[in-house]
Amino acid sequence: MISPLFCFKKILAALLLSVVGGLPLVVSAQTPELTDWLKLSAETLQNWTVVSEHGNPFRATISPSRPSGKSALKRVLVLYPRASSAYDISLNRLLAVFSEREMNANFTIINFQNNPVFGKQAIEFAEIWSIDLIYTMGSESTDFVFSKYKGGTIPVVSICSKDPVLLGQVKDYDKGSGNNFAFTSLNMQIDSQLAYLKALKPEIKNIGILVDSKNKSAVQTQSDPIAKAAKAIGIRPISIDIKEPELAAQELLEKLPRAMEEMKKTDPSLRNSVFWITGSTSVFREIFTINRVTGNVPVISAVPEVATEGDDSAVLSIGISFDSNAHLAAIYGLDILSGKSKPGKLKVGIVSPPDIAINFLRARKIGLKIPFSFFERAGYIYDFEGKPKRVNGVQKP
Question: With 0-12 CB in 10 A as exposed, 13-18 as middle and 19+ as buried, what is 103?
Answer without folding.
Answer: buried
